[in-house]
Amino acid sequence: MATGIGTDPVAVTQAAPPLKRQHSLRLPRSPKILIGLGILLFFVLVAILGPIVRPDSPDATFANSPVPLAPTAAHWLGTTQAQQDVFSQLLVGGGSMLLVALIGGVIATAGSVVIGVTAGYLGGLADELLSMLIILFGFIGTSGQNDLFLIGIIISLTGWAFGARVLRAQTLSLRNRDYVDAAKITGERWWRIIATEILPNLIPVVATSFLFTVLYAVGTYTALAFLGLVNPNWSWGGMLLYAQNSNAELSGYWWWFLPPGLAIALLGTSLVLLNFGIDEFINPRLRAAGLSGRRRRGGRPEFALTPVIRSEGGHS
Q1: Cys-Cys link to 111, which of 34, 45, 160, 283 (CB 3.0-4.6 A)?
Q2: Percentage helix, strand, coil, to 5, in the chain?
Q3: For residue 81, what are the CA distances in angstroms to 63, 112, 231, 308?
Q4: Per-residue pLDDT tens for 61-73?
Q5: Which residue has the higher pLDDT, 15 or 105?
Q6: Are 265 and 236 in contact (CB under 8 A)?
């Protein structure tokens, strides 16, 4: 007995590091996150390198024809009604889309973290005032502007309220935990408790809020450009606007509206996959369902059989 007791701490010490490493590597192994991250990185490269590798200027004309020209070796995605290269417009349009989405996502997430977490922790009158602010901004509509940075700010002002509500609800469930009470007893200031005790536990929720806001910014900027409320700037929404004005979908000019539409859909899909992957990681029920589903698909079926113990005489 004494030997067994003496060897147990060594075994526990040796087994602890592998468990910790396995937990830290679980998130990147999610297929949703890997696929979504791969698609998103592709569009980031397109946004960065697109204006450099574009074959032509997006507003240059190349032919004298009353109708758009179909894809050829000279113009991989054909031309528009004004005989402009669609492929060049597609490469250039991704930069403005991602820039507006990034600006809107960063500012809106920062605002939702500051207001949502503060309201959830302080409670009382501060919670009521900040909650009223969240509700008011939730009803504010968007406004048309031409500057990309200003468009991103406007989108962030109309998109942070949802994330603030979610973070407020999560903070309400964390502010009465034992480690928060211990920090209060030691005399920590409220802002330090939020920064060191509550906010680190909300990082996955903040990440999902950021992705949701970026997705909201992509859809909002596309809608604004498609409706002509902002300067298209050769954005994908602007390409859809020009194609719609020329009845490209009715005339069969698929090369004009299909590429930007697919680009917007794939960009949104990548953000949704990342959001679902993080949600599955932080939600124990979704994670357990995913693991059990993989076991059912990969392993042999298990049947509920009752084991039979046979005696030495051969009777069960």
Answers
A1: 160
A2: 70, 0, 25
A3: 10, 44, 19, 79
A4: 877 777 888 888 8
A5: 105
A6: no
Quick one: which of 205, 188, 206 has its CA closest to 197?
A: 188
SS3 113: helix
Q: In the structure encoding, which two tokens stand for residue 202, read together? A: 């909300």
Q: Are 134 and 161 in contact (CB under 8 A)?
A: yes
Residues of the chain with pLDDT > 70, as a percent, come to 72
Instruction: For residue range 123-157, list pLDDT tens digits in order.
Output: 765 556 656 655 555 554 444 445 788 888 888 88
Taking the C-alpha atoms of 291, 296, 298 and 300 in order, what is their torsion angle to the nearest 10 degrees?
140
- Residue that has been written with the tokens 């992957």 in this structure: 277
* Entry field: residues in the chain: 316
CA distance 130 to 124: 10
Amino acid occupying residue 28: P
Helix, strand or coil, per DSSP, at residue 144: coil
User: Is the pLDDT score of 56 beyond 60?
Assistant: yes
- With tokens 């991250």, the residue in question is 37
Region of 22 on the Ramachandran plot (φ > 0 left; ψ -120 to 50 alpha; else beta): alpha
For 80, the 3-state DSSP assignment is: coil
Please give the angle made by the CA atoms of 198, 116 and 141, to the nearest 5 degrees: 155
Q: How confident is the model at residue 287 (pLDDT cuts 50, 70, 90)?
A: low
Q: What is the CA radius of gyration of the chain?
A: 27
d(CA 217, CA 227): 15
Amino acid at 162: F
pLDDT tens digits, 175-185: 888 888 888 88
